Amino acid sequence: LVKCRAALDIRGADGGDDEFQALNDVIKGTFEDLNKAGSTSDSFNQESNAPREGNLGNKMDDAVRALAYRSSDVNAMLDSASTGLSFRDEEYLGGVISFAQDLSRYAIGRATLRDEQSVLIARDLVSELMACLLKFDFRNGSIRRKFDGIKYALKRLENILYELSVTSDNAGDDGPKSKRAKIEEEKTERVDVAEIDEVRARMEARDELREKVIKRTRDSQKSAKQAIFALHRGDQARADKLILESEEIAAELLPIIEKEPQLRYGSFANSLEEYAEAKLFKLWLTEQRLGTPDDMPICNEEEFLGGLCDLTGEVGRNAVAKGTSRDVTAVQFAMVTNMTVMNLLEGLALPYNLGKKLGPLNQSVKKLEQMLYELSLTQGGRTAPSGGMVEDEEPTTKEVNE
What we know:
Blueprint: H1 2-9, H2 17-37, H3 56-71, H4 89-112, H5 116-133, H6 142-148, H7 150-166, H8 175-186, H9 193-233, H10 236-259, H11 267-287, H12 301-324, H13 328-346, H14 352-355, H15 358-379, H16 397-401
Helix pairs in contact: 1-2, 1-3, 2-3, 3-4, 4-5, 4-6, 4-7, 5-7, 9-10, 9-11, 10-11, 11-12, 12-13, 12-15, 13-15
């Protein structure tokens, strides 16, 4: 990545071609080795379209951006097929958009050397790319934020061309000739419009699948939530029906998720966490045990652990209802359950979204301990205010005088 950044910083100055070419050769070799080494990994296999591991996706954006400078020598933008590397559509777009924005900096260097032709080529390339990208319906995200910067890059390039024209020594002497040359240059296509349109078609197809997943997972999550409410009310039959309905919706969407694995993260994963919570709560109430991943094979490990964390909240609510009827044994079982879950999770290296659930879990255990203490006082014939221990009463004035 350091060499990639260095290559991007060599712009607009004469005499740096050898160094620029040497760095690009290293970059190309590096990513060819990475492509060869990772060709069997789902994270690197383009056909699987699985999410990249770690920050590999950002690095692939930088690879496209650097390789685009190699192809800029022939006055045209990089096409993904010519690289021989496995770029995702989002990575390719992110890289070429960043490259287009860099061209405004490149143009400043070329303008310093009065190279108006290079600035004109850069302006035309950015203009054509922007015309193609305006057809996209980008969602809020990194690509949308990058795209918003293209119009500023294009404006900067046009300003540079204007400044060069008004400061040229022979401005006006060969106006007609320059105009003809400009028209001729504009006839050269610098962006592969067909490839950009193919990328847009694939992204639109994925967006349609994404909308379908979001809509159906909303139904699945709703069924799981209603199942939990039914379990709290003791309506076992309705809870079983709703849990099965949630599971069937998730199974219906699995083929789409297998085709587009990145759609698992977000609404689909949230609905499976809710389903896991409902299934775990049912097993805890009916069989007095903690469920295992084998009880819900449709969930992956992170979704199961998310449901297990959320289960402790339902266990706490159930304990409050049992404590109202002075069922000490049920409250003790709830506290042991939450303590067991907390001890298990504290021994794992949890991702951030799960790690932040440990705080509420710890508070739940403390509340259950306090509840048992208050129940013990009640059994001994004393009462204690909820949320705190009994304090000695202040002595009266008469007692003080005595």
